[in-house]
Amino acid sequence: MAIPITVLDCDLLLYGRGHRTLDRFKLDDVTDEYLMSMYGFPRQFIYYLVELLGANLSRPTQRSRAISPETQVLAALGFYTSGSFQTRMGDAIGISQASMSRCVANVTEALVERASQFIRFPADEASIQALKDEFYGLAGMPGVMGVVDCIHVAIKAPNAEDLSYVNRKGLHSLNCLMVCDIRGTLMTVETNWPGSLQDCAVLQQSSLSSQFEAGMHKDSWLVGDSSFFLRTWLMTPLHIPETPAEYRYNMAHSATHSVIEKTFRTLCSRFRCLDGSKGALQYSPEKSSHIILACCVLHNISLEHGMDVWSSPMTVPMEQPPEEEYEHMESLDLEADRIRQELMLTHFS
């Protein structure tokens, strides 16, 4: 006797025919405390994301039933913020591992499509000057438009032969370049660089460097640590300060640079899939890069909605490869050295 076998189609669950949706979980059925503890964000923020991404998550097909945009958003948020295996998060909202994976992929791509809308440098002079004024008020560093640094995010090994993603700790990672303002808002994010590249090489090859080298942000500079080369648009600390002015400059530089250090800690605390505590991202470098970028988009959206960047409990992100010193190379850029000397003479003497 033939035994009937039911085959579940993930696309059938995700994208239905007409407007029938599979609603296994509804926001109105749970408390705000549950949403914050399970998904990391309040109810109104989740509703905003559903509205923002709904069109991408409701693509019509010839299938019969679909998982609602609301459930897809919850599935993705649960994965981003817990760093746990997708099976556990899927069980919480009543969907399978395969459907959970597809939800995360759909929401991730929808957020990545909107990255340029939420991650960008200010374009008008008034906003740029406001950035500089805020940084100057923090530690007395004039002309600062943002703080730049890199952070490694652990990923699974792409394959046994590819060593380009192996960082100096012997772990597979992506080396992500970011720039933030004084509030922790990300203004540049590049998440596609392999972990074997040192920070200075990432910056040198980045679109960020091309923008500044082309003079798109004149009369402004970034602050970066000693893993970067000194540039006319990038102020780094002195390797061995000797004069009082040099010590004051380094102290102001350190206070300014601490903004992005706190931003990284908050990013990894809010989005535990990035901090390595639950293991590496189990995706290809390209998909991992998109997940990191999606978390950065959510980080900025949360700031726009008044969620304090420093409010999340701090955890230690993935142990970063040790920095190297490049100060002995700075003399190659005499103009950059002249600008830094003038800065110290004018503002820190």
TrEMBL record:
Domain of life: Eukaryota
One protein family per Pfam: DDE_Tnp_4
GO CC annotations on file: centriolar satellite; cytosol; nucleus; plasma membrane
Nuclease among keywords: yes
Subcellular location: Cytoplasm; Nucleus
Cofactor: a divalent metal cation
Protein name, as recorded: Putative nuclease HARBI1
Annotated organism of origin: Pongo abelii
Gene name of the encoded protein: HARBI1
